[in-house]
Amino acid sequence: YRGPARAMVQHYDTLGYPCPLYANPLDHYVDLGTIDYRSERTQLMTSDSVESLKKSFMESAIHSETLKQIHYWKSGPRENVVFYRTKANKHEIMRRMIQRLQLNLSRDSSALTMRLSQLFLFGFFMFAFFFRIGSNQNSMQDRVGFLYEISCGPIFIGMFNAIALFPTMRDMHYRESRDGFYNSWMFLMTYIAHVVPFAMLASVIFATFTYWAIGLNPHVVRFVFFYFNSFLLHVAGELIGIGMLGLIGDPTLANSVCALLISTSCLLSSGLVRSVESLPTVLHLLSYLMIHKYASELYVVNEYSGLQLDCPKQGEMCIFPMGDTYLEQYYPNAIQNFDRNCAVMWFYTLALFALVIGIFQVRTKVLH
Fold this sequence. Notes:
Structural class: mainly alpha
Distance between the termini: 34 Å
Strand content: under 5%
């Protein structure tokens, strides 16, 4: 092949040799156009393949156009042309990396579908299980169960996305960083810039369907808080998965460790299985380091604050006449800490990102 670089992939596509996902086209097609001398059989096969590729190119429109360009430059006026090689700046490198990530994702329809549909499917199953949550006393148990599930679901799904899609890009980054193309923080910045729009869109679909279909507190402002909380948990899960893949090479082992950490955080710090205040002192203090302590408090305040609940008939016990009663009993300071918890969720996510960058900076130095 001796044509424009931009037309190379399309040329080989038309010949029935598409470029594999996440592969460097130049490396792939150099291998394709090389004769394999390891055995007589492979030599014959690859020789025939190379001859076929050569014939196809000689008969292509690209070859004809290339000959025209050569003839033009040979017969035209001679000029002294000096080519200067300049090194691309960081912004240009990151822009090209984002373009490559988007191109690779567009080639992988299953990955694109997974990113956009998994949260919605999780919300659909929640709707199928809970249907509509009412306002009677029995609905309190349904609300607690639902809030526990959505505290754990988005972060798990974000982690699963990272475990499934990131290892190939991680290995490619290790190879390219060894050649000095870019630093780890540039790679991670572009990856997160690539991931965040999909996380936002998936969270919008999930939150819109789940919040209004199941019948949570019907206020638009509360829906917005519900959405941002779900979005930050989703991104945090992806960051946890990426960080663990920086520490552990095997995706299966990284998945198991992440699942254990997230499950521990859900159980200990959400307060929806057991009140955080009733935990042993060590576990109570440990819960402040876990993201679900702040996310679950935002969820319960968002749902229970000002919520009016129906009481049974006269003479029967009414345990929770209002949602505030539940908050006073199980989350005594959650309303006063609402603004603080919102800020902590943002800073927690940023801190996870900084930690991931540190892990990969150290990891690449060790590998090199």
